[in-house]
Amino acid sequence: MSDGLARLSERERQVLRLLSQGHDAKSAARSLDVSVHAVNERLREARRKLGVTSSREAARLFAAAGHDLPKYSVAKKMEVGSEDACGVDGVGPDREAASGSRSFSPWSLGAFMILLFVAAIGGWTMIDGEGATSHSLPASPRVTATSPAQGAAIAPGPFELSVTFDRPMQAGSYSFVQVAPESYPDCGSSRPAQSRDGRTFTLRCAAVSGRSYEVWLNSPPYMNFKSVEGVPAGPYQLRFRAGRR
């Protein structure tokens, strides 16, 4: 089975990833800006390589192996605001990403979201020198706007990729994360500009005609979009596409 997973093409992985997230062939085709026939062909090849007869079973195996979440390959230690092969990731001065490759299962993301939920609604009890005192941690920052908008079609060529949060965020700390090279826009060596109110980060990028894009704003282990209190924003998946000339 592991051999079959290793033989999957990136296009087949894209389709299986969408199915594991609840899409059907039609919605996957819309998301990838391809025909339903093309999606079905990729699923047929994926089923053959995995030795199963059901596309849903293929997607289940793909997800169970941890392939439904973004993969990261860190080739060097990252400094503040550095760009690596995974997109753009700003790391605070007291944190560095270790070299090597890392894979993450759905459990890591689920556990992280549960912790954020508990912290947001329940608070945590801290013990100080005078006894027990209850302190509620701030809720995690929320994305209030993106450019392009979720699911938007944009003109090919230069554009601004931006995200706005519901509160001021830490300066110089950000994570624009890629799933696959072909689904991440060309942002060159630019670094995000942060607005004066600290809520918006903007990258200058370029889109290729007819291509679909997927960018994660925070995704484990890259969780550097943080409020000024140090609370990371939850993972946010942004999808958009470039129209054809």
Structure commentary:
The protein has 245 residues and is of the alpha+beta class. The chain folds into three domains: 2-64, Winged helix-like DNA-binding domain superfamily/Winged helix DNA-binding domain (Arc Repressor Mutant, subunit A); 74-94 and 140-242, Immunoglobulin-like, CATH 2.60.40; 102-135, no CATH class. Helices cover 27% and strands 26% of the residues. It is built from six helices and 14 strands. The strands form four sheets. Strands 2-3-10-13-14-8 form a six-stranded mixed β-sheet, with no helix packed on it. Strands 7-9-12-11 form a four-stranded antiparallel β-sheet, with no helix packed on it. Strands 1-4 form a two-stranded antiparallel ribbon. A hairpin with a 2-residue loop joins strand 5 (124-128) and strand 6. Helix 2 crosses helix 3, helix 2 crosses helix 5 and helix 3 (25-32) crosses helix 4. Residues 68-86, 91-105 and 120-135 have low confidence and may be disordered.
How are the secondary structure elements laid out?
Elements: H1 2-7, H2 10-20, H3 25-32, H4 36-50, H5 55-64, E1 72-74, E2 83-84, E3 87-89, E4 100-102, H6 106-121, E5 124-128, E6 131-135, E7 143-147, E8 153-154, E9 157-165, E10 175-178, E11 193-194, E12 200-207, E13 212-217, E14 236-242
